[in-house]
Design goal:
Blueprint lengths: L2 H15 L12 H59 L5
């Protein structure tokens, strides 16, 4: 088989089996651009909404953290008081 014919066969096989690429002029469909744009818009909206909610509830979260800390302090004080009461109620020998 001559080299020229072999090259033609190989070139034809490569063209037949290779997937289409953007370099050969295959365009990206409109629906794909629309989907990417919708995803970008949703991401921007969600980021903005999340930030505004975070700022809105920041004082409430700080108050809840302060109350939780106060509760822990009260529980620690209660435990100390219970220990003291046990010591004070022990009968003398």
């Amino acid at each position: 088989m001559p080299k020229g014919r072999l090259r033609q066969i190989v070139r034809g096989e490569v063209q037949r089996t290779s997937p289409p690429s953007l370099a050969r002029g295959v365009a990206i469909p409109f629906w794909m651009w629309a989907g990417a744009a919708a995803l970008l818009a949703l991401t921007v909206y969600s980021t903005g909404t999340g930030s505004s909610w975070s700022r809105k509830y920041e004082p409430s979260n700080a108050r809840a953290a302060a109350l939780l800390q106060h509760r822990h302090d009260l529980e620690a004080e209660l435990e100390r008081t219970r220990r003291e009461s046990v010591i004070l109620t022990i009968p003398p020998p």
